[in-house]
Design a protein that fits this description.
The chain is mostly helical and 216 residues long. The protein has 8 helices and 8 strands, in the order ββαββααααααββββα. A hairpin with a 6-residue loop joins strand 7 and strand 8. The radius of gyration is 22 Å and the shape is globular. It starts with a strand and ends with a helix.
Length: 216
């Protein structure tokens, strides 16, 4: 058994634990739609000048949103996905992948190809952790533009869940507190910490982080 290369908290006999493998699968599935959704954000919102109570468009072309262009252009989402797809083909000794005609098609094909090999990636590829981190960051960058409210609703990160299962294994998943929720509930193991337990929870998290810093 070893520690998952992504969350670095759950023990697994693969390179990625089942939870992180599911998250990677979700990210790969969403990237093509996020790529398409970014098109609406290429130009900043139109600015206007008030004239007689009505908005009048400002003359001149609006600048392109550079962060969106970086994700949609060469070197962005398509390059990241295709680079990992090529590395996968090399690792499995497959012929080089055939590229699609348009960038949206290439994004979809590369994401689908990686998703199709996800079981092999998680179980057999030493680069699985690096792949999962890059895809997570890519997904986060695109989602923060297309779905900013979803990013805000992720809640406040508190630390690692201290719940222990019947076999004595500590959960270790990331705990978050969401606005309006009374208890802090682990999204992985389902353990809930009520407000009266938050003091002890904070002590455990601080101790865990201190031990992690000393180990580093």
């Amino acid at each position: 058994m070893s520690t998952c290369q992504l969350c670095e908290s759950r023990e697994t006999d693969s390179y990625l634990c089942p939870g992180c493998t599911r998250v990677l699968a979700e990210h790969l599935s969403r990237l093509p739609a996020l790529y398409s959704g970014l098109a609406a954000f290429l130009a900043p919102a139109a600015r206007g000048a008030q004239h007689g109570g009505h908005a009048r468009a400002v003359d001149g072309a609006l600048p392109v949103s550079e962060n969106v262009l970086d994700l949609r252009g060469p070197g962005g989402m398509v390059t990241t996905l295709e680079s990992w797809r090529e590395a996968l083909h090399d690792a499995r000794r497959w012929p080089a992948p055939t590229l699609g005609v348009s960038i949206p098609n290439r994004v979809g094909s590369a994401a689908a190809a990686l998703h199709h090999s996800l079981d092999w990636i998680a179980q057999h590829w030493p680069a699985a952790g690096d792949l999962a981190r890059e895809i997570r960051d890519l997904h986060g960058a695109a989602a923060s533009i297309v779905h900013p409210r979803l990013i805000e609703e992720r809640g406040t990160r508190l630390g690692k869940c201290p719940a222990v299962d019947p076999s004595g294994v500590v959960c270790g998943a990331v705990l978050r507190h969401y606005p309006g929720e009374r208890a802090v509930t682990c999204q992985w193991c389902g353990c809930a910490f009520e407000p009266q337990q938050w003091g002890e929870l904070r002590k455990w998290i601080d101790l865990d982080e201190a031990e992690g810093s000393n180990a580093a």
